[in-house]
Write a sequence for this structure.
């Protein structure tokens, strides 16, 4: 039974949603089927109601594509984690509004729980990431977008850099993420971000970042940062000195679909070398030149 339900859940995503084969609804859904979606006050009932819902969304996003992130089946239930991506090229009709085409590409995640009876779906409940969805369509005020971007940056600093939780890089960065670092360094994708964190935390194992200022507008968020740590690993070509380091920098990031897509980081490398005792000759030479 579990394999049947698993196959049915995959057919709903691939055949009905991705391929638009609405006739499959009659095959997979019971006559008294009930569909509920977070953000929609009324239930959708029966195969015809589900067809109407699907055709409306597919009309608004003709190139829509659902991908299955996780699928769990137990007993009569299936639990599905998915990612939606599509371009809003036609009117989006909902119960509270009709939104004209924006031309925007949206990408967001969601969760669906379904129940099967006698070989057909009898009910389904869906929870899309409505905040991300509405933000990308421009339906939420800038203040909500800004606060979400700030929250993302706080997670990057606290969970990724301060705590060294590398696993969250997959959640916080897009697959084509680019980090423009000091001295022209580039790190790409979540794996590149992980390597960056490993490098700085190896050099300064007790590293701690503090966000001194944080501002956001549109799809950009910028932070003024200070951080300190003890130099116990190679840093900017300098072997461990055991010295404490206190530095300042900035980080500006572009956000796409609630994740970091690109970052520009700035840090005074000369100041770092001076604190490590590796730029004393440059410093002394500058003093003599100015004498």
């Amino acid at each position: 039974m579990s394999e049947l339900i698993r196959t049915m859940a995959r057919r709903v995503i691939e055949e009905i949603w991705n391929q638009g084969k609405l006739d499959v609804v009659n095959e997979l859904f019971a006559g008294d089927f009930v569909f509920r979606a977070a953000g929609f006050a009324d239930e959708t009932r029966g195969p015809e109601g589900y067809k109407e819902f699907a055709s409306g969304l597919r009309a608004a996003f003709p190139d829509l594509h659902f991908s299955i992130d996780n699928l769990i089946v137990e007993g009569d239930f299936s639990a599905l984690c998915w990612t939606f991506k599509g371009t809003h090229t036609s009117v989006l009709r909902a119960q509270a509004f009709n939104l004209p085409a924006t031309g925007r590409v949206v990408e967001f995640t969601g969760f669906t729980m379904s129940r099967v009876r006698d070989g057909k779906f009898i009910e389904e409940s869906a929870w899309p990431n409505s905040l991300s969805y509405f933000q990308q369509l421009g339906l939420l005020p800038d203040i909500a977008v800004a606060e979400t971007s700030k929250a993302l940056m706080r997670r990057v600093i606290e969970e990724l850099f301060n705590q060294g939780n590398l696993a969250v890089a997959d959640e916080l960065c897009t697959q084509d993420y680019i980090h423009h670092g000091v001295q022209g360094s580039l790190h790409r994708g979540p794996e590149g971000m992980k390597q960056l964190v490993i490098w700085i935390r190896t050099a300064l194992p007790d590293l701690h970042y503090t966000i001194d200022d944080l501002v956001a507008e549109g799809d950009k968020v910028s932070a003024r940062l200070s951080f300190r740590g003890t130099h116990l690993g190679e840093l900017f070509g300098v072997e461990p000195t055991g010295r404490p380091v206190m530095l300042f920098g900035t980080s500006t990031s572009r956000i796409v679909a609630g994740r970091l897509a690109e970052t520009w980081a700035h840090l005074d490398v000369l100041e770092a070398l001076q604190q490590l005792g590796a730029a004393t000759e440059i410093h002394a030479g500058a003093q003599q030149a100015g004498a």
Observations:
- Residues 282-291 have pLDDT under 50 and may be disordered.
- The first strand starts at residue 29 and ends at 37.
- The two ends are 86 Å apart (CA to CA).
- Residues 2-136 form a domain with the Nuclear Transport Factor 2; Chain: A, fold (CATH 3.10.450.50).
